[in-house]
Amino acid sequence: TSCDSPYFLQTKDKTCVDACNSNQYIDTTDITIPKCSDCNILCLTCTDEMICKTCADGKFLNTNTLLCEACDTSCATCENGTDKTKCLSCSSPLYYQQLEKKCVTECYSNQYLNSSNICKACNSTCATCIDGISCSTCSSGSFINSESGLCELCDSNCKTCNVSKTACLSCNDPQYLQTNQTCQNSCLPKQYPDLTKKCQPCNISCLSCINGNSCSTCDDGMYIDSKSNY
Q1: Domain boundary at 87, 121, 155, which?
Q2: Where in the sequence is the domain holding 10, given as residue range(s)?
Q3: Which residues cross the membrane (predicted)?
Q4: Residues near 173 by beta carbon (within 8 Å), at least 6 away in sequence
Q5: pLDDT (tens digit, 9 = 90+) per residue, 179-226?
Q6: Is position 208 within any domain?
Q7: What is the pTM of this model?
Q8: CA-to-CA separations, 6 to 3, 35, 224, in angstroms, rounded
Q9: Which residue among 74, 94, 121 closes a domain?
């Protein structure tokens, strides 16, 4: 019924032990008989029957009540405190959104999923990425450098570009995209700008044209046929 110091009475089998089980605490209600008593069923470990120290997976320590409570169902584990939705890891098949401590079905567009199912930020140059090193797409006005795998700014003449900073895909107003992927203030002779501001070749019979089918001027010695517009 009692033990000599430094032993404690194990209430389960009335033996004297030098340490209590992990799910027990040293009960000194009767200071003359320190004994091992069970923690509250909600606790993994405790310092008193109603004061949890640690909690099982899927539970968190409520810092107001000092008892363990269930995490939100999306969380595999969650942060101690008062908010059960602050996840530390996720239940499958959800992914961990580290920025907001929540579990999600997909990462943000400027993030990638790592091998631990955690959403991680892409390199700051990327719009989207494959991993933390290589971009898969860039924001408008940038292109993927094939050597570094990162996004770089297009030349200031280009609105958008690819392959290299000077290989324009579209131009800033009021310039037009030439067939050699440069931007100029006007199209070359025997070309016309289409609706997307790309320079297109006139019909071979035109000196200048309104579109691919209608000449506006002709080479010397030729005239515009009123029926064909060539």
Answers
A1: 121
A2: 1-38
A3: none
A4: none
A5: 999 999 999 999 999 999 999 999 888 899 988 888 999 887 788 776
A6: yes
A7: 0.67
A8: 8, 11, 115
A9: 121
